[in-house]
Structure formats: structure tokens, C-alpha cells
Amino acid sequence: MKIWIAYWNILAKDLRSYYLKPPNVSWGVIFPLAWTLMFFIKSESAVDVRGLVPGVMALSVLFGTTSMLAVTITFEKKGRSFERLLLAPIPLELLMLAKTSGAVLFGVANAVVPIGLAAALTDLAGVIWWQVCVAVTLVAVSSAFLGLFVAVSVSEVFEAQSFSNFFRFPMVFLCGLFFPIDKLPWLLRPLSYAMPLTYGTDLLHEAFNGAGRFPAALSVAALLGFCAFLFGLSIRNVRRKWIV
């Protein structure tokens, strides 16, 4: 029981210190709003809102989650406050789950903004909401673990942002967010299948438009596999680099 009290206290501290600060809350609203408005302004014809919202949701979760987590953990490591957490009498895996849970909640909250905009602009009847919830949660978790991997691989905050972009921007163009993977050059398609956002976006497209490429069970299994791989790799790096 005590270890779960520790988990909750670490999560609550991160929520108060980072995720619930007014600038971060406003950024979580403005970022997906800006993405949505960009596509409305760019389009010269009627916008397919239901076709657009899965990509906007996935981007909002990806950028919100990785940006916050990579910076906060790197900042704490730089300020040596993370070293005090490593002394806590709880398993390292639970400690890292506590540090990533705030980012997961922040990413899920970011996805609510595009859904609210879509509901105001079009009819969302027929959307498979349970699949939307599963997809958003798994994208948030995999993005959080990607941010964790970035954070434990660098030593400076600016390095965390640069390294994050090394993964994030290829995902924008290669994961089927706004145009089908089939239209990519065949040399790039294997890269698409090696990215977790591909499967999260596919789940969202299937939930909103019935236009998924993969069976839902395959996408869920792929996302769970990416989560396990990224988390295990991050724990290995923490043990190797941060614990003497």
C-alpha cells in the first residue's frame, strides 16, 4: 500500500508543478486549436472534419506528451532533484510509471480539444467511442514512453527537444496522419510500420470513418508492444546511466 501512496504523491506533485500550470494548460488548448484552424484556412473547399480530426488528435497527444515529459525529467535530472527520487524505497519501474502518468493524462486531455471542435462543426454519430478511448490512451502511453526514452538519453533540456523532434517530425509525414501510407514511396513504407503513431492513427481513422488499414486487434497489439519496448529500454538506460 505504501508504494502506491508514493506513486500517487509523485504523480500529484508533477501535476501541480508542471501540468496544471496555466501556461501549460493554455498550450494544451491552443496547440490542437492551431492545428485545426491551419487546415481550415489552407483548404479551398469544404473540410472533411471527420477525416481531419483523427490526425489532429494524434498530433496533439504526441507533441503534448513528449514535449512535457522529455523536458520535465531532463530538468529534474539537471537540477539533481531526480536523484532524490531514485533513493525512494519503491521499485524503479513504479517510480518511472509515476513520472510518466502525468504526461499520459496531459496527452489524453489534449485530445479532448479536437473532439470538442469536431462536435461543434459536424455530426459525430456512428463514431466508435470505446475505440477512440483505447487509441488515445495507447498513443498517450507510447508517446510518454518515447519522451521518457528521450529524457534518459540526453543531459540538457535543449538536447531533449532536439532529440524529440528527430522522432516526432518523421511521424507527422510517415504515419498516415493526413494522407494514406499507400501514397508514400515504397522505400519509406517500412519506416511507417516501425512507428507507433501509425497504429494509433489507424485506430482513430477506423473509429471515426471506418477507414482503418489494419485489424483493430493488430493495432492494439502493436501499440502495446511499442510501449513495452520503449519502457524497457528507458529503464535499462536509467539503470546504466543514472544509477551508480
Please describe the structure with a list of short key phrases separated by commas or semicolons:
244 residues, mainly alpha, 79% helix
Q: What would you say about this model in short?
A:
The protein is mainly α and 244 residues long.
Overall pLDDT: 81
Structural class: mainly alpha
Give a quick account of the main beta sheet: strands, pairing sense, barrel closure: none
Order of helices and strands: HHHHHHHHHH
Uncertain runs with pLDDT below 50, 5 residues or more?
none
The first-to-last residue Cα distance is: 28 Å
Principal-axis shape: globular
Explain the layout of strands and helices.
Elements lengths: L1 H18 L2 H21 L6 H30 L2 H6 L5 H30 L7 H23 L5 H18 L14 H5 L2 H14 L6 H27 L2
Descriptive account of the structure:
- By secondary structure, this protein is mainly alpha-helical.
- It has one domain (2-242).
- Helices cover 79% and strands 0% of the residues.
- It is built from ten helices and no strands.
- Helix 1 (2-19) packs across helix 5, helix 3 (49-78) runs antiparallel to helix 5 and helix 3 (49-78) runs parallel beside helix 6.
- The mean pLDDT is 81.
